[in-house]
Amino acid sequence: MQYTIFNRKPVNSLKEPMFFGETVNVARYDQQKYPIFEQLIEKQLSFFWRPEEVDLSKDRKDFQDLAEHEKHIFLSNLKYQTLLDSIQGRSPNIAFLPVCSLPELETWIETWAFSETIHSRSYTHIIRNIKSDPSDVFDDIVRNEEILKRADSVSKYYDSFIEYMNLFNLLGLGVHDINGKKTEITMFELKKRLYLCLVSVNVLEAIRFYVSFACSFAFAERALMEGNAKVIKLIARDEALHLTGTQHMMNLMASGQDDEEMARVAEECKQQAEEIFVEAAEQEKQWAEYLFKDGSMIGLNKDILCQYVEYITNIRMQAVGLNSPFEARSNPLPWMNAWLVSDNVQVAPQESEISSYLVGQVDSEVSADDFDDFDL
Amino acid sequence: MSDEVKIEIDDLVPIYAPKSQSILSSLEQHDIRIEYQCRSGYCGACRVKLLEGRVDYDEPPLAFIKENEILTCCSKAITDLKLERPLT
Ligand SMILES: [Fe+2]
Ligand SMILES: [Fe+2]
After folding, report:
1. A76 and A290 in contact (C-beta within 8 Å)?
2. Distance from the CA of B78 to the center of ligand 2, in angstroms?
3. Where are the domains of chain B?
4. Which end of chain B is more exposed for a tag (fewer CB within 10 A), N or C?
5. What is the ipTM score, two decimals?
6. Global pTM?
7. Measured between CB atoms, does A318 come within 8 Å of chain B?
8. What is the pLDDT of residues B31-64, one digit of tens each?
């Protein structure tokens, strides 16, 4: 058993690598090997928001008035987002915490995953508002062939790493007889699966999510489903931070300053990492085909969304030092930045759309007949 | 010392912009479109390659940048700059 919930050994975590060093004992943040993770935690905490703060009452009517093929686009996109955050709400904790060696990184991972649970709660908020029976939507996520295909591709690198890490934690390095099969557990393979898992997380948060954001904002561009867009803006602000966290981890790994063997892993996996990006881009294009199978919407169709997939894939690959095979082109959805921009997302009480404020507003309105029950 | 700097991007016509303003805002004022999201240094969307010159940040940004890259949303030019045109 490699893992212990409280390592009794005195460790200087300033000298530990991010992963596969000593397990963390004292959760202390007075000193940090990588202050960036502490800064990310602070930032994420400052972003805290609650789905209920966004009023969705106009969305309900908007949704009812959508054409059938637009309802399909909206709901399928929402199902996909729900799937992605269901995965992200648990998997960083399950996969990365048991092998993490720095207190600030451990807490960043937990803070990151916690914010994903808010995203999941917001989908329930949205779906409850537009469907009398939310189960129609939720149940389909584990029945619908197209969604299941997506689930497969976003979870396989997590599963592959988690399985191997569990064997490592139980049996340690070396050759083991597992169910009659000889299985070798090596540190190199562990690190490789961790690295590839991080690549696929980056793909999930930096590409797949952005493609889904494009669909959400395409409705809002037509002044439809604007409450939903407001929630998605808050989610996008969080995701921008998450992908920054993952880019830092990947670049620290590749640099070798954290762990030399990890740098060799990153180098050896370069082609595989590129393939993961490209494969995901192809899957997103297939998804676009499914979304628009019954028709396009004003401002967005299959071809434009596919161009956006290639565009955003290029940018994300560049950021982590990988080469993209897609032709460099300009952003086919120039309105995206204006929706994504986060300096104007504030869940401030003076905003009229916010339900808690509206409640106060109703309460403070006094009319003559409010006093009808008064007897002097 | 002048309060203006010259910013060159590839073969575009150079622009002149006040030192006090973020590079992103200066580029936008001259209709040079580049990618952005957070406009406060944590998302990395606005990163470009710095070929020549020096910039300064009010506070160190959170986004990952390589040594030769800058975040245009939260950096200000200290000297004249040469930038590489990013994907837009
Ligand atoms: Fe999320
Ligand atoms: Fe995320």
Report:
1. yes
2. 35
3. 4-84
4. N
5. 0.93
6. 0.90
7. yes
8. 998 889 999 999 999 999 999 999 999 999 999 9
